[in-house]
Amino acid sequence: MIIVIKGKRESFLFEMMDSSAGMGFGTGLTPLLFLIGYDPLQVVPILLISEAVTGVTSGIFHHEFQNVKFSIKRPITKETKIMLMIAGIGCFAIFFSVILTYYSLKLPKDVIKAYVGILVLFMGIIGVIRLKSKVRDTYKPKLLTGFAALAGFNKGIGAGGYGLVVSVGQVFSGIYEKTGTAVVSLAEGFVCIVGVAAFILISSYGVTIDFVLLPSIFTGGFLAAILSPYIGKVLPNNILKLLIPIYAISMVILTLSKVFLL
User: Fold this and answer.
1) Alpha-carbon gap, residue 219 to 214, rounded angstroms
2) pTM value?
3) Phi then psi dihedrals of residue 66, to 5 deg
4) 93 Cβ partners below 8 Å, 6+ apart?
5) pLDDT tens for each residue of 161-192
6) How far apart are CA 99 and CA 104, in angstroms?
7) Which of 18, 16, 38, 34 is nearest to 26 (CA)?
8) CA-based R_g, the chain, Å
9) Phi-psi bin for 69: left (phi > 0), alpha (psi -120 to 50), beta?
10) Which of 63, 39, 6 lies closest to 182 in space, CA to CA?
């Protein structure tokens, strides 16, 4: 019962940061749950289920608070096109990585956490270096495509690293940080839906998934997804520009520290 209560609190805090800054839920929460003693198949699919709902919810509220303008009618907005591109590529990547990691190769959990941690650390360091530049890059969709594929692959492996990689990738690609946060939240929701479908598929072939964490993780995350878009509206963009790479580094330090403590 104590673990469940902690899971709810941590879920709320990390989802609040995830929906406000576009990253942090899976990357921050996964290593903590591993440290408590949960296995990857008790953690990763549950986080994906939660983020499938919270991502879509957060995206809707970002739209309502006018942090971004999504449209399903013509003319389709630029933000909607970017979201669909990121989500589409990420869906293919997460489906492939779930099948490869948990069904074909069955990678050890320490390998999973170390992989995501080192990769995101690299992204965060580059993001900090870029802060010294006063010139904003023009929009580079091809560059963002690569980040989206890499992020989707990370998400399927360890339920983390998606928002971190895509958010930093958007900075490199010339996308306004506050807009990028909303785009990432909604795209991540769609990507997680496909990730959940992939886990359901492999479960039909004998892979056991434990849902014990679902009630606490989902409750805390859902509440945060509703509240956090308002933070994104009132928080100055310059703070987000600094927050994204610094938070990336802090999250990955946490991730790698848990690997060596286990």
Assistant:
1) 8
2) 0.81
3) 65, 30
4) 148, 149, 150, 151, 152, 153, 155, 156
5) 787 778 777 777 777 666 777 888 899 999 99
6) 6
7) 18
8) 17
9) beta
10) 63
